[in-house]
Amino acid sequence: MIIAIDGPAASGKGTLARRVADAMGYAYLDTGLLYRATGAKVLALGLDPSNDDAAITAAEKLVSGDLDGEELRSEEVGSAASKVAAIPKVRAVLLDFQRDLARTPPAGKRGAVLDGRDIGTVVCPEAPIKFYLTASVEERANRRFKQLQEKNPAAIYERVLKELEERDARDSARDVAPLKMASDAIHIDTDRLNADAVFNAVMAHIRTHM
Ligand code: C5P
């Protein structure tokens, strides 16, 4: 059993996916972390994340289990992630890894929840339950800014907004697996919904469709 949750950066996918996975006793895979780890590896070498060879080598190392302890949650790594994510061979290297995890969840788990940009369209188009979360870019920047401010009081809202806009544009415009709602996904606009309301709506849908 696979549940796919897609949407743009900071749309609340991660929080929702983790809660749904816990409630269902499923494994959770944050696929953005794979692109972030690939981007972080390239940055750690002082190379350009848009450089095909560097990004492909980093993705291959990652799927063969070479994990470093880099910080993955920063906006800088998010930007690098969206650059490596536009390279078709990087996506191909990470695709099988994601599918294997989704289709063969760890022992004791009856299914998997995956979140990302292309889970419902490319990674697991067969998933019987798909959600597509959106919120305005201002609302998403606001949420991300508040999170960042807890760690770094010098965070600047305008900068967070600009980075999200750039990332949205890159993720939507790329040729391979662009950010797009699957035709059979349920669309949830989270602008006026808090995390509990989104979770309750999603769980109600899952319960009636299982
Ligand atoms: O979800 P998160 O913001 O951590 O993802 C970081 C970047 O990784 C995204 O901006 C996107 O470019 C890329 N990504 C992707 N496909 C996925 C998940 C993430 O292209 N399934």
From TrEMBL:
Catalyzed chemical reaction(s): CMP + ATP = CDP + ADP; dCMP + ATP = dCDP + ADP
Q: Where is the Cytidylate kinase domain?
A: 3-207
Q: What is its EC number?
A: 2.7.4.25
Record carries keyword Nucleotide-binding: yes
The entry lists its GO molecular-function terms as: ATP binding; CMP kinase activity; dCMP kinase activity
Location in or out of the cell: Cytoplasm
Among Pfam families, the record links this protein to:
Cytidylate_kin
Q: Which residues bind ATP?
A: G7, P8, A9, A10, S11, G12, K13, G14, T15
UniProt keywords (A-Z) are: ATP-binding, Cytoplasm, Kinase, Nucleotide-binding, Transferase
CDD domains documented for this protein: CMPK (cd02020)
Which InterPro entries does this chain map to?
Answer: Cytidylate_kin, Cytidylate_kinase_dom, P-loop_NTPase
- Single Gene Ontology BP annotation: pyrimidine nucleotide metabolic process
This protein's record includes keyword Manganese: no
The superkingdom of the source organism is Bacteria
Enzyme category, top tier: transferase
A cellular component term, taken from the record's GO annotations: cytoplasm
HAMAP family in the cross-refs: Cytidyl_kinase_type1
Which family is it part of? Belongs to the cytidylate kinase family. Type 1 subfamily.
Name of protein: Cytidylate kinase
Organism of origin is Thalassospira alkalitolerans
